[in-house]
Amino acid sequence: MEAPTACTKCKIDSDFPFLKNANCVGCTAAIPNCRTCTQADQFTDITCDACTASFTGVTCETDCGAGMKQFNGTFCQSVSCEFSVPCGGNGACKTTSGNSTCECKPGYNGRNCENLETCEVQNCQTCVQGDAKKCKVCAPNYQLTSYKHCELKQSCVVENCLTCVWNNPNRCQGCAQDYDLTAAGSCEIAQICKVKDCQTCVMGNENQCEICYKSLDPLTNCTDCKFGLFLSQNVCKSCGEGCGRCTSANKCISCADGSIPVKGKCSVQTAQIGAGGIAGIVIAILAVLLLVTLVVILIRRRKSTAVRAKLPDGGLLEGHNGSQVAVVD
User: Fold this and answer.
1) How would you write the pLDDT of the chain (329 residues) with one tens digit per residue?
2) Alpha carbons 171 and 183: distance in angstroms, whole number
3) Within-domain flag for 135
C-alpha cells in the first residue's frame, strides 16, 4: 500500500500548480467555483481572482441564484438591467421593484461607481476594500509586505535569478530561462534531457527521467518529498520502516535514527536469547563448577602430602597396643 502523497512544492506550469494540504491541485479543487487562482509561493494561501459564471464572493461562496448573473467576477447583477455596461463597468447593476442600483467593486464609489477611491498607501495600485491604509496590489517594481505596505523590490544576488525569496536576496525563487532552480535556492544551467515530456533528467543521464512535466493525477505532481519519502514518477512513496532517506523502497541510504543501513534496510533489533544462547550459558556454568571442584581437590591433596611429610615412617603412627595407624585426610 502506497504512502499518502506529501508534496512540499508543485510544478507551476502544470495542470496542478497549487499546493494545498501537501497535495498538488488545480484551481477548482483548491477553491470550488473559482475560475482563476493565484498563489505567490508554497507558504501563502491560494486566492481566487475570478469566479465561474454564476458565483461570486472572496472564495466564490455565493450563488447568484435565479434571475441573477455574475458581473465583473465580483458581483451578482439582475439580468433585467438595460445597459450593456451598467455602473460604468465598475460595479453591478441590481433592479428592485423597478429601480436600478449599483453595487461598486473594490476601489470605486458613487451612484454609478464613477468615483475612484483614494489609497493612502504609497506606491500602491489598489487598496483593500474599505481600508485606504492597506494595500492589495502594489505598483510595478514594488512588492507587498506582511503589513500590507509596498516596498521597492529587493535586489537579488543569486546569479541567473529573476526573483529571490522575500527578504532573502541569497535564495532564488524563480530562475532565468535555460536555468533550473536547485533545492539550495541557486540557479544552475538546465540539463539537456532527451526523454519525451520530461522536465528534469537524472544527473549525468540524459536518457533517464527524474521529474515529468505532466501528470494525469492531481495528487501525483510532486517535485520534492518530505523526510522518509522518495519521489517515484512524481509520486511521493514511503522509504520503509525506520528509513529517513532512500532512492527506492528497497534502497535506504540513511536511517531515521542516524544509524547506517544494512543491505539497504533499517530495522529495529530486539534482544532475544534463543536455544543456542541458553545452551551456551549452561555449558559455561558447568565449566566453572568443574574448574572450582578441581581446584578444591588439588588444594586438599597438597595439604595431605604436607602433613605426611612431617610425620615419621611416611605418616604412620604407633597405637597404644603397638599397632601402626596411617594418617589420612
Assistant:
1) 343 467 888 888 788 888 888 888 999 889 998 888 888 877 788 998 888 777 888 888 888 776 677 776 667 777 667 766 677 778 888 877 767 788 888 777 776 776 777 788 888 888 887 778 888 888 887 888 878 888 877 778 899 988 788 778 898 888 888 888 888 899 988 777 777 766 667 766 777 777 665 443 444 456 677 778 888 877 778 888 889 889 888 889 888 888 888 888 887 554 445 566 677 788 889 888 888 888 888 888 777 666 566 555 555 555 555 555 555 55
2) 10
3) yes
The beta strands (E) that lie in 205-302 are given as 209-212, 229-232, 235-238, 243-248, 251-255
CA distance 28 to 32: 5
Query: In Å, how far are 88, 102, 241 from 91, measured between CA atoms?
Result: 7, 6, 58
Q: With CA atoms as reference, report the closest residue to 51 among 70, 78, 25.
A: 70
Structural domain including 243 reads 225-267
**What's the rounded Cα separation, in Å, for the pair 102 and 91?**
6
How far lies 324's CA from each of 185, 305, 307, 311, 329, in Å? Answer: 107, 19, 17, 13, 16
Conformation bin of residue 29: beta by default, left when phi > 0, alpha when psi is -120 to 50? alpha
Query: Residue 55 has which C-alpha cell?
Result: 458565483
All three cell numbers of 327: 594418617
Q: How many domains does the chain have?
A: 3
| Domain-embedded: residue 163 | no
Residue 16 CB-half CA count within 13 A: 23
In a domain, 74, yes or no: no
Query: 268: number of CA atoms within 13 Å, CB side?
Result: 6
Residue 122 lies in a domain: yes
Is the dihedral angle over the CA atoms 56, 59, 62, 63 positive or is it negative? Answer: positive
Burial class (CB in 10 A: 0-12, 13-18, 19+), 64: buried
Residues forming a β-bridge with 36: 50
pTM to 2 decimal places: 0.31
